[in-house]
Hints:
Elements: H1 3-20, H2 29-39, H3 44-56, H4 61-103, H5 108-137, H6 140-146, H7 155-170, H8 176-192
Helix pairs in contact: 1-4, 3-4, 7-8
Amino acid sequence: MSYALLLLELFGRFLLVGLFSIGGGLATLPFLTSMGEATGWFNAADVSNMVAISESTPGPMGINMATYVGYAVGGIPGAIIGPLGLIAPSIVIIIIISRVLMKFRDSKYVNYAFYGLRAASVGLIAAACYSVAKIALFNGEVFAETGNFFLGFDIKSIILCVVVFAAVMCFKKLHPIACIVAAAVVGMIFQMG
């Protein structure tokens, strides 16, 4: 197979992944596994490495994995072609939706729909915050062992959360990266203590 056909196949395979994997980077894993089996470009152990590398590098997980596979298969051109194939369906869909919405932007029904979407997005963010807080602040294993609801709360984590929240509220103009570094330092101190 020529190099150009290899890059074209890479683009096409990631185009299908981008078209059908709705739900973020983790939703691409079944598609990547079947792609590896069909092409022989990588195996299941390679997929595990891709996930680890993609999670530890900046950027969206799916794009990082497409870059990883693209580079492994086709070098630097492959590292460009893979992510382009992955994002192409999203770009086309967004362009189509934006054109349709421009025709109906003054429609009161479209405005109502967007108003409802705002509330839904706030609900999704609140649900994600609740899930993270439950994992970080409550130890379900202790509760299961003791049966005491109050013993399940992780006091150190709650104190850490309050300290970080108070610091953020006091220094509202502080850069977000400084907040992340400060939270990491406080977390290390709490972990050692």
